[in-house]
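Q: Joint fold for the lines below.
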Amino acid sequence: MNNANNALTEAVYYILLSLIEPKHGYGIMQQTASLSGGRLRLSAGTLYGALVSLQEKGWIEPLGEEGRKKEYRLTDNGRSVLIAEVERLEELVKNGKELLNH
Amino acid sequence: MNNANNALTEAVYYILLSLIEPKHGYGIMQQTASLSGGRLRLSAGTLYGALVSLQEKGWIEPLGEEGRKKEYRLTDNGRSVLIAEVERLEELVKNGKELLNH
DNA sequence: TCCGTTATATCGGTTGCCGATACAAATGTA
DNA sequence: TACATTTGTATCGGCAACCGATATAACGGA
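A: Joint structure:
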């Protein structure tokens, strides 16, 4: 337990964003690369490890399997976390712009 | 070396922002708590560990000591990193807002 | 005098990302 | 048909970073 560090990692942030629309693991990789303009490419280790831990936290849930594909989607809980994260990021941007333009 | 993960941690981000104006370690703690509305309180372990690694990266530099206080300031290199980070954060916010409001 | 704040520093534990590796089905191409 | 690439999921070891706890000590106010 720490003081208040609710910060999501960039990987987790994009995984959660991707799962607003149900999607399977490989689809998350593709959407993340696309959303970030090719900048962020999730490694398999990051992605599949995160899918396990995010289920344990109750932020995403499995939807079933279609052939080889395992689909997941964001839970209501996960959506709340995402909304809070966007607010945190907006705080960072606001502070950054203020201090950089002295 | 990884694909393109230039993401700063929240702690490092606020430390760099604080050092736009020269400041000593404890002053960074105070400004960070203030800027984040009390949300983020850097632990001593995080702060002093980061001050060492940020010097090694050349993003901050020591200015000298005033009694017990050791002052640091952002380098030009550190400033560039900060500017890039604000741009990255803006991308995250933009994507988050777009996808959350489907 | 005593206590809270200021101030710097180290240590061990935990978490999380990464690259590498593995395996295999599906698709595209020569 | 044969081969290469893409799609798809999964595990492992290593490394970096944050955290809380702990240590030490000067300073200021009640």
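Q: Anything notable?
A: Chain B touches chain A at residues 2-5, 7, 9-10, 13-14, 17, 20, 35-37, 39-41, 43, 79, 82-83, 85-86, 89-93, 95-97, 99-100, 102 (CB under 8 Å). The CA atoms of residues 45 and 55 of chain B lie 16 Å apart.
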